[in-house]
Amino acid sequence: MKLSTKIFIGLFVATFVPSIYLGQFVFAGIKPTANGFALAFDVWGYVGIAVMIINNVFGGILFFRFLRTLTLSKVLFFSTLPLSIVYGLALFMLADIGKYNTQLAVSVRTVLNISTTNLYNTILWAVLITLLYLTIIFLMYLYLCRPVNRIEKIITRLSDGRVKEDKFNIGKSKQFKNVEYALNKINYNYKDKDNQLKQTNLEAQKFIPKQFFKFLGKSSINELELGNQVKKIATTLFCDLSSRTELSQSLNLEENFNFINSYLNVVSPIIRRYDGFVDKYLGDGLLAVFPRPENAVDAAHSIIRAIEMKNRSTRDLPPVEARIGIHTGEVIFGIVGEEERKSPTIVSDVVNLVSKIEDINKFLHTRVILSKTVLNDLPTRYRFNYRYLGSLTIDDGANLPLYESLEIYPRERKEKLIHLKGKFERGVRIYNEKGYEESAREFEELLRLVPEDKPSYIYYNKAKEKAGRE
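The structure corresponding to this sequence follows.
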């Protein structure tokens, strides 16, 4: 029992006996007359009124606190019991008041304007008392059942998943306190599971990029099913981080693993920044997918610059060089595997082609190579500097023209290569037409102007070698 309740009980008991004793002075001050009642309280009468009011206030507080400890059915019963008793007594007195001839009865009949011969007024008073009783009962039930309405609304919001409150407040009775505790526990568990689900989806996006969901037309990992697939035109980017062999010789396995991850942590955010996603990590490289070719080209340039900055910050370790191939084509986005192990991926000949395109970087010592299909799909407003490198022979015998981006070179070298672009491309075309001696002369002149240009050096050596065989 609360301390405040104990205090109220003490005060109620302390004022109860005086209120009974002083009640005689209060009733003595209410004098029946022929016209009704006259009030003539003395000092003790006023003191009695004050004590009775105080006693009733403390009694009311204790009564309401008692109701809080009960279940709803008992609350409804005990809260209406005193009123029902008063109502019954009022009707009984109203029915029998005309039989008595005391001064009090005469005064009451006078005030109420009723008599044994005037049943109409008696009925009207009975109806009025009944309406008053029903109104008070209705208001009491409305007040006492408010927690039930709150519970209904809370349950509706819980079922619809629209709960924002951290804690529910329902009612003050013991039963509703228990219900309130249970609903708050449900709400906590609901929010906890909802947060866990959101966290799971966030973690899932680290394995299944949200762009992949967009390509498949799905919004959640729960919607992914084995065999889901969609065919779209997309641009793939294959990035390889070279110098892995050198790193393996100078670092142990754990250091090597962490070192490569540190570079992948540089590359992957750039891919996301340009609206792409990593389809798979391939040791010291990765395969990325972009919805638009211009995004892939911009990402490639940013990756090269970011890797160069990363190398400058890790001078105590061998530098890493990024080599990139870009190709556009028809790709199938889908879920492969089996029921116990599903994996999202892309399936297409484009993947093999972009890998071969990237591999040409190793032969020509270039950094970014893109196919003719990428150039054809670029918007007309998109501008960047590139040069023709030659053609890649595909498995079906067709040739795929390839181009090198010049945007990744230092400014001075880039301006030279742009100025000599026509001469370089002429040398490549002459080489393709098997004019090896003339091609060698073209590249020899180029090397005098740009001796550090590796593709010119490779073409020069190959043209000299083939011209010597003829």
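Residues 212 and 277 are 8 Å apart (CA to CA).
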